[in-house]
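Supplementary notes for students who missed Thursday's class. We covered one full example, reproduced here. Read the sequence, then the structure, then the short commentary at the end.
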Amino acid sequence: MALSLIAEDLLEFHSRDPQRLIYGSEVLGTTFRTESIPKVDAAYRELEDAGLATKTGVVIGYFGEEKELYRLTARGIALAQEHRNARVQSR
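Structure (token representation):
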């Protein structure tokens, strides 16, 4: 399954604590610009379309916009673990 780099980063980010509800703009780095936020939104939709994340129904205000929070599905958590294991084995 080919995901964008930001979607891959979100998958890894959320797999560290799958129960935590947070908007994952951290994947853009600490000095991101608000113009980059649509890339995160697109990556969340990408994960949802792939069946790796689902909307939670929780909406937050983020830089003046409403953002719905996502949670990884069991499939998303398993894929993140597979990626983590593959990185460990390649070392």
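Commentary. The first strand starts at residue 53 and ends at 62. Residues 42 and 52 are 14 Å apart (CA to CA). If anything here is unclear, bring it to office hours.
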